What we know:
Layout: H1 7-18, H2 45-55, E1 59-62, H3 74-91, E2 94-97, E3 105-106, E4 112-113, H4 123-128, E5 131-137, E6 141-149, E7 157-163, E8 168-171, H5 178-190
Parallel strand pairs: 1-2
Antiparallel strand pairs: 3-4, 5-6, 6-7, 7-8
Helix pairs in contact: 2-3
Amino acid sequence: IQRERPPIEFLERLKIISQTIPYERKNIIHDTFNQRMNILDIKNWPKILASIKDNGAELVFVDPIYPGLGNIDAEKVNLFTQLLTVIQNECKTSHLITHHSSRSTVTKDGDEKTRKSPYYGSMIIMAHVTGSYHVQQNEDGLVMHADKSSQSNLMDKIITTYDPATHISALDVPSLPADNRFLSLSAQWKTS
Length: 192
């Protein structure tokens, strides 16, 4: 469920990624129908559920969650987490949600202040998920730190290296081809 940016952007990214990581088209469902939905309106939930069931999805991505939540407050976040629970129970799917963290702030002295767990909005989201990573960019790629692992099955830290030629961040295991490095990482996500 893409919640921001035009649909063509997702398709362009997928095309670039597919040049390095082949995939079966039938396994990726880009649902622009739900992008237009007010996901907090309970009257729309049957349509959202039907769309997920009709497409046979096993893993539902919501990227990112803040569009549609507007000014995030506890009531909106509660409705959103209820929707995720309903999707999981009714559609028998897992979900992966992305959420922008809050930006670092500057103190009166001009020093940059970054929160250890910079969840933007409500901590209800953190309470809802069984596992989460805080993703940070470094000079070479991305570093993902586990913030929460309710089932103790997440790696504490995942370091990836960005390849500008393929536009992919992957595990830094040179002995593996890029598609296997990505699959190794995604296998970790599937078991969490």
